[in-house]
Amino acid sequence: MLQSPPETSTQSTRYTAICTDGTRIACHRFGQGSRTPIILTHGTFSSHQGCQGLAQHLALCGYDVWAFDWRGHGASDTPTAQYDFETVALQDVPAVKELVKRETQTAKSIWLAHSGGGLVMAMWMARHPDQANQDVLGLGMLATQANQAAALTAHRQKIENMAGWLADMDIIPARALGVGSDPESAHLMRQWCRWNLSGAFHGAQGFDYLAALPGLNMPVLTLAGAGDHFVAPPQGCFDFANAFGSTDKTLVQCGKSYGFLEDYEHGRILASSSARKEIWPRVADWVSKHV
Fold this sequence. Notes:
Elements: E1 12-18, E2 24-30, E3 35-41, H1 52-60, E4 63-68, H2 85-104, E5 109-114, H3 116-127, H4 129-135, E6 136-142, H5 153-166, E7 171-172, H6 174-177, E8 184-185, H7 186-198, H8 209-212, E9 220-225, H9 234-242, E10 249-254, H10 273-288
Parallel strand pairs: 3-4, 3-5, 5-6, 6-9, 9-10
Antiparallel strand pairs: 1-2, 2-4, 7-8
Helix pairs in contact: 1-10, 2-3, 3-4, 5-7
Pfam families: Hydrolase_4 (PF12146)
Keywords: Hydrolase
GO molecular function: hydrolase activity
């Protein structure tokens, strides 16, 4: 039976990671527990605050949890230059990794993410497989997929319309549109549209991320929401996880038919009263088996 710590809050302390391009990334440390460090991040249109409940839960389990804000989100710098998923993956992620290593005196950690946060973590790993296989004890992803949001005709049309709307835009005003808490880079979202319309997961100079994932052998956890029909449909999440070379994979569809309290939608699988009761403890249980 999954166990939950007492429902009390844990305060965080803010640190700053400096990227090689000079961008300052806000990292929020929860608990400073004695157990293995956990690096945690959010997805698009969000910040570390979207992960705060899970971060506090894990901290109360004794882990040293580091939740970071992507550039342009939360308390991190908003760069003047355009940025995309690859910028976050190849600039922000390694800067945070080095900060956590310096502060905790260990290179090894568990990585957890929601939605696009799982993509940026996987992208860094795909570019640095030897280091990732050595240092990352496990990758846990909630509602993460790369290229299957357009599987249905209606969804393809929706993404095509989105791509057209974003063509002449730099920043998407999330709150004004009611799509999240933080503004998002239109350049980044155009990249997401391309991946899902083409079915490819390619980066700069044509780097094929899906083709590189079999070189990663750390344990993988994927939780997919049964009610997440558009952004991260379960099959897309499972196909993404199965692209990894690991033989230790845990794939779970979170819905009523599988014994869960609800058919989780994209956001509720991370932050909801139901998630607090059964998703967060499940993540903590998986972490405990891989440290």
